[in-house]
Write a structure and sequence with these properties.
Largest sheet: 7 strands, mixed
Shape: globular
Radius of gyration: 16 Å
Distance between the termini: 11 Å
Strand content: 15-25%
Structural class: alpha/beta
Number of helices: 6
Number of strands: 7
Order of helices and strands: EHEHEHEHHEHEE
Length: 185
């Protein structure tokens, strides 16, 4: 089961994704994993990371994953529940922090999604929607957004469910089958 949760900055998407994953975990068992892509690059980001950890509470196994999503996923046991937060930061670090080409990043995400599905991992991926404004004027920002949107399209295509969170409220763009106990909200 794979769910893609998107939304604007501070829309409530991370909180929504955490609650969803906890519900899955309560039914499925196994361990809850938090794959954190953020780096504490300044005081504000360090404070946000600390706040997220406090709000999540105990019971999460956290892996710091600025680039190597595949290596982190390899540490997760089959059937566990995983929250990846957030793809936006991962994409920027991949592109500007030594990850590799855009094509390699796209392939890595595709491989991780396939591995999660094959191993029965319940995966929730969080990402910011940066494509709601007018197109940026500078070419490099346009290239980054194009890369991120390719990742989003791949994820939306592969996901069983796609949710956008607006002002804390979920909007199902690709709803799940409410009669399937594995995918219940």
């Amino acid at each position: 089961m794979i769910t893609f949760v998107s939304g604007g900055a501070r829309s409530g998407k991370s909180r929504y994704a955490e609650v969803l994953l906890c519900r899955w975990h309560a039914r499925r068992g196994g361990r809850r994993w938090y794959l954190a892509t953020a780096r504490a690059s300044d005081a504000e980001m360090a404070a946000r990371i600390a706040r997220h950890r406090r709000e999540r509470g105990a019971g999460w196994h956290t892996l710091e994953v600025p680039l190597a999503l595949d290596a982190a996923l390899a540490e997760v046991s089959d059937g566990d529940s995983v929250l990846l937060d957030c793809l936006t930061l991962w994409a920027s670090q991949w592109r500007y922090g030594g990850g590799g080409s855009d094509a390699e990043g796209e392939a890595l995400l595709a491989d991780c999604l396939a591995a999660a599905r094959a191993r029965g991992i319940a995966l929730v991926v969080v990402s910011n929607d940066l494509n709601e404004d007018l197109p940026p004027e500078d070419a490099e920002t346009r290239r980054y957004i194009a890369f991120l949107q390719r990742l989003h399209r791949r994820l939306a295509r592969e996901a069983d469910r796609v949710v956008e969170v607006v002002a804390g409220l979920p909007i199902d763009w690709k709803p799940i089958d409410d009669h399937d106990p594995e995918t219940l909200r």
